[in-house]
Each structure stands twice: as structure tokens, then as C-alpha cells.
Amino acid sequence: MKRKAKRPDKYLLYQHAVQSPEVHVDWMLSAWKDLRRSGPAPKLLREDFCGTYAISCEWVKRSSEHRAIGLDLDPEPLAWGLKHNWKKLDSSQRGRVDAREANVLNSTARGADLLFVGNFSFFIFKERAQLLNYFRIARSSLSSRGLFMLEMAGGPGMIAPLRERKTVRIEDGKSLKKFQYIWHQKKFDPISHDALYAIHFKLEDGSRLDDAFVYDWRLWSIPEVKDLLLEAGFSDAVVYWEKTQRGEGTGDYVRMLAGDNAYSWIAYVVGVK
Length: 273
Ligand SMILES: C[S@@+](CC[C@H](N)C(=O)[O-])C[C@H]1O[C@@H](n2cnc3c(N)ncnc32)[C@H](O)[C@@H]1O
Description:
4-stranded antiparallel beta sheet, globular, alpha/beta, 2 domains, binds S-adenosylmethionine, Rossmann fold
């Protein structure tokens, strides 16, 4: 009897190719220090659109006082996160992560010191009124000194039709040692800023996982997002932009009023309550 080939695990591939929860948590803590110079440290993180909630799991490792609530609509990544991220925590850490199948617009999870939105996930809201509504809800979900942190991407390099490939190596991979990650920019409409992206994977044996993840987004600009944060009642909206050295990004994000005209960029916009 012929054995059926095992379907590659798209969440495992995604986690290796795209995510770096340690880097994100380091950044959140440093931005908190920068914006809230005195007073108590942040304790409760809410991770909206959390998927496999890797960031929440990293957050609770950093202090026994840290708690995290992750929210996602889709039970599939949540179940993957339970099996692969949450199970790796010790029992105290496990007790401080609460991943919920919920819509970020309806959640009752309140009192967050940090509300983090990774991988541009709020781009799912295409209408101005929808995004404003979400920002209002986010603001009311924060503690009195809370910060709302939004990861954004942009530049001509996010608009051009392209397929960007990178080879990803897995150090401790047993059957899977390396694979190719393909970021595909399928469509962009300059009138609406609707943008369609997909992630494909190609494995060592030549098999492919096309459209493993598909994102139908609106590519919001930083000034639009800042304006909406202020309209939603945030007292300030600040931008952390990546420092460059000889034209290359350093991975260091600093608070800036103006950025360099990068071909493609990732930045963080923070709504200050
Ligand atoms: C781009 S993925 C990001 C996952 C994760 N934050 C990351 O960085 O890898 C977007 C996630 O948002 C979830 N999602 C979309 N709309 C949502 C909503 N209204 N409320 C909660 N989750 C939502 C999807 O199920 C998906 O898992």
C-alpha cells in the first residue's frame, strides 16, 4: 500500500519564516520605557489577531507578573498555538496565557497595558468607519496608561507586483531542514488601496503549498492611521521607524517625526492613551 504524503504544516513553516516573538517583545518593552518613563511596568498584554499567539507565550516568559490575552476568530491557529507554543511553557506561564476564540470588535477583555497588533492584521478593516470603530474599542480596552501598538508595512515595495523568495533553514528540524518562503503581491488598486497578498511555501522535495495564507487588505498609510488614532481619542500617535546604516535597516526602531523614503518598510505606530 502506498503511503499518503504528509501535508506540510503551514503554521510551522509560517512561524519559522515570519515570526520573531522575542524581538517583538523586546521592542514592546523598550517602547513602553520610552513613552512611560516612570510608574509601574506593563503587566497585561492583549494580542489582537493573535493567530498562534506566539507573542503572548513569549510575553509571559519575561516576568511572573506578566499575563496575556490573545484574541483570534479562527479556531485553527489557536489550536496549533495550544499544541506548539502554549504546551512548551511551564505551568506558571501556562496559567497566565488566555487565548480566546473571539472577534476583536466584541471582546470583553479589558485593562490591557499593551495592546499589540502584529503583521499588519488591522489592514483587514477596509473602511475608514470600521477602522475608527476598532481603534475606539481598542482604546476603551486599555488600562489608564495603556499603549496601542500597531505594526505597519508600506512603501513602493509593498505595492509592486512581485514574488519575493527566501530560503529558511530550521536548525533543529527533524524531517524538515529547509524550505522556501514566497511572499506574493498579487494585486494592488491605487484607487481603493485594496491589496491582495499570499504566502506560498516550496519544500525540499519539490512539493508546494500555494496560497497557504491569503490576505485581502487595504494598505493604510501612516498619516491616515495617526489621524484615526487621534480621532478615536488617543492623546498622541507616535511612529517608531527603523534606523538605517549604509542604506540597510538595522532592526532598531526609534521614535521619529520623519522617515527615509524606503522602498519597503515596516514601522510601528503607537496610540498613547
Ligand atoms: C495576518 S494573521 C496574523 C496572525 C498573527 N498576529 C501573526 O502575526 O502571525 C491575521 C489573523 O487575524 C484573524 N482575524 C481576522 N479578523 C479578525 C477579527 N475581527 N477578530 C479576531 N481575529 C481576526 C485571522 O483569523 C488571522 O489569524
